[in-house]
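User: I'm curious what two different proteins look like when written out as structure tokens. Can you demonstrate?

Assistant: Sure. I'll show them one after the other, since each token string lines up with its own sequence. Here's the first protein:
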Amino acid sequence: MSGHVWLLPLKNLDDDARAIKLGEIALLELGEGQRKFVGEPLRMMLIALEEDSRYPFAVDTNGTAAGVLTLQSGAATLAGWPEDDSAWLLRGFLIDRRQQGKGLGTLAADAAVREAAKLTAGLGSGQSGVVLSVNELNPAALAAYRKAGFADHGRYEGGDAGPQRIMYRAF
């Protein structure tokens, strides 16, 4: 795994920079079969920008958006976690199909945990880690999360696309 990623917080960008980044996000492409696991990138980011509990990020490499992810507070039970406020929910995470296989997903998942820790410290919100759910039929994502230090915490039956694995990583 080589390369670097930067998570650019879309809510913190000025209007011009945000518009440029959203234009890049609109050009992201999902891989074969990925649509059943994740939504349309631009739509997810626009929704996240409007909701106070969501913190949307562009996953940047080489100066351009290679993916997106959102950290959400107060929503961990959506991933099968027993309590909403003890962990950040990592959701809407994807890497452009043309950038997949380069380790960017693992790097971005690791960076998301660091960003969540910063958000917790800045907001004084008390979360102790990051949780997500990943479809059992998505082995590439499962592997990326494991490489980023996420541990499997069991099965969650609540996913729209079938059974999920609950993955968690403490700060």
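Here's a second, unrelated protein for contrast:
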Amino acid sequence: MKNSRIFDMLLGLAFVVIGIMAVNRPATTLGFLVFFFGVLAIVRGITAIVGLGAMTGQSSRGFRIVLGVFDIIIGVMFLSNMIRGALFLGVMFAVWFLMESIGHLFLTARFNQSKGFMKIIILLFDILCMILAVMLLFNPIIATLTLPKLVGFSAMSFGFVLIIHGFSHQE
């Protein structure tokens, strides 16, 4: 249990530091995100196609090829047109933030070890992340321009939740 506490606190601290860096360098952050997801999509596509030997059913082989080619196309689009990639990231991150916030709300509901005050703090950070997600969904162009700041603040919020979670574990 002690290792889990330390891991939560260190991971939370890492999220806070990354969040601060993202807020302070928005253009670099956005460029890095587009590049990172472009490369990630290409690598995922290649591994989906190359990993066909591990697939046992014939029906899934065609599906894996289609998904692999789709991932490679998405990755090339990200890398060849940074603006289009950045706009797509706005929508992608909105969905991700929303899913993470919902997941954290379920975690908080099951989090019986903490006292009422700790639950309220965690709920406030989760609600903040949900508000950011809704903002991203309803205004993708503006969200893309502010995405590095939103990513930074969300990373800091998730970091604080993990740090609080680490401090509130019972031995």
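A detail about the second structure: DSSP finds six helices and no strands in the chain.
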